[in-house]
Structure formats: C-alpha cells, structure tokens
Amino acid sequence: MKWTWLALVIFTAVSTAAVQAHAQTPLAPKAAADSFYAANRTERWASAAAYLDMDAFARLLRERVDVARMNRAQLPMSVETRMAQDSTMPCAVAEWQVERMRRYGATRPFDDFSQDFIGITSLRALEALTPAEGAVRWLEAQDPNATWRRAVAKLKCAQASADSLRTFSLFTRSVLAAVEVNDSTAYVLTTIDVFGMPWAGTTPLRLTWC
Fold first, then answer.
1. Residues 124-159 pLDDT 10s
2. Per-residue confidence at 1, pLDDT binned at 50, 70, 90?
3. CA dist., res. 131 & res. 135, Å (int)
4. pLDDT tens-digit series, residues 20-60
5. Residue 202 — φ and ψ, nearest 5°?
6. Cα angle at 117 between 141 and 120, to 5 degrees?
7. Dihedral (CA of 187, 36, 197, 149) sign
8. What b/e sequence results for 34-65 when a residue is b if at least 16 CB atoms lie within 10 Å of its CB, and e otherwise?
9. What is the pTM of this model?
10. Which residues pair with 205 in a beta bridge?
11. Which of 11, 46, 21 is nearest to 134 (CA)?
12. Residue 181 in this model has a pLDDT that exceeds 70
C-alpha cells in the first residue's frame, strides 16, 4: 500500500512509494509521516523529497513557471495604468501605490524565486529545474529552521556562525497520532514546537492510498 499525504496548510502531496519500494513491509500512516519529518528535521532534503508525489509536484512546478512567464510579460505598473484600473482613484494615491510597488520590487527582484526554490534567482534557472531537483530546493526553502537561519545570517551577527546555527533547531515538527479511516484514507495530526513549547496549534494531514 502506498500512502500519499496532502498537507492542508502547505498544499502539497507526499508519498511513501519510493521508500516502500525498498521496505520489507508497507509503512503505516504514522510511520510514513514520522519518516518524512525525520528526513526534514535532519535536513536530508533528497531523502525527504523521495516521499513527494512527483506527479503532483511536477504540476505545481509547471504552474509556478507559467505564472512567472506571465508576470514577466506584463508591463511595469504606471500611474496612468493604476488610475485606469480605478477611475475614482486620485492621482496622488496612484503615485503613492506605484512608488510602493517599485520599492517592494527593488527589495525582491522579479526573477528571484529563492523563497520558493532555494538558490533559484532567475526565470531561466526555474525553467531548467527538474521535478526531482525542484522538490529538494522547495523543501529546503519551506523548512522553518532553514528559513530562520537564513534570516539570522542576513543580520551578519558575529556570534552566530554558520556551523553554530546549523546545529540549532528552533522548530520541531511532531506527529501526534494517525487514524486510518479505510483502505485508502488516513488522517495524521501534527504539531510544531518552538523551544519545546507547542506553537500555533496542530496541523491535520490527510493521507490517501493510490
């Protein structure tokens, strides 16, 4: 039996197919979730990516590329264009909004996709990603501990070396329970702890068999 989970919060699909192909016995839902989070916790991104439903992830990657291409084709926002979108908008307000858009764009270049796929800073690089490589980069970009370390590194704090930060985990994802509804569906309840304390409640996951 191959379990695929759908995270209701991060909207992605995860599968144990690759791991179970080498396992003597199929993984139970909780064991599948435990194994996936264990790989993430130790930052073995390729191992964690082996759990992803690559068909679903490939669709996600294609959609991201399509959106990026569409956005690039759009002309930069101008005051005239903004006022044409809202005929009631005063010119001063349109100027303020356009300037705000320009400043935001300066802080995050259009072709910087590193918040979604780590290290990808151009449309050409995004287009060249295979689903397997994209999955690895996507998992690292979404991981809260890796994201936190990157944010701290930008502060250029001398006391926080790259090695010391790498051994420090602020967030810990735990699997609380799993309930198998039938032969094709199971629900897994997870939580995130910060410094060992529960944070932001729990996250339900639905696992389906395919």
1. 999 999 999 999 999 999 888 888 888 777 777 666
2. very low
3. 6
4. 544 545 667 788 888 888 898 888 999 999 888 888 899 99
5. -120, 160
6. 125
7. negative
8. bbbbebbbeeebebbbbbbbbebbbebbeebb
9. 0.67
10. 7, 188
11. 46
12. yes
Six-digit token string for 120:
């990808």
Q: Which residue has the tokens 């529960």?
A: 198
On the question of pLDDT at 18 being above 70, the answer is: no
CA distances from 169 to 116, 154, 192 (A): 21, 18, 12
Dist. CA 49–CA 141, nearest whole Å: 13
Q: Token pair of 81, please?
A: 């264009």
Give me 167's structure tokens: 């051994």
Amino acid letter at 19? Answer: V
155-175: string of b/e by CB count within 10 Å (b at 16+)?
A: eeeeeeeeeebeeebbbbbeb
Would you place residue 120 in the very low, low, confident or very high pLDDT band (cuts 50, 70, 90)? very high
Cα gap 95→3, rounded to integer Å: 52
Q: For residues 179 and 166, what is the distance between their CA atoms, to the nearest angstrom? A: 34
Distances (CA, A) of 181 to 56, 139, 188, 189: 23, 28, 11, 13
Provide the pLDDT for residue 163: 56
At 110 the three-state DSSP class reads: coil
- Sheet containing 197-209: order of strands: 12-15, 3-7, 197-209, 185-194, 171-180
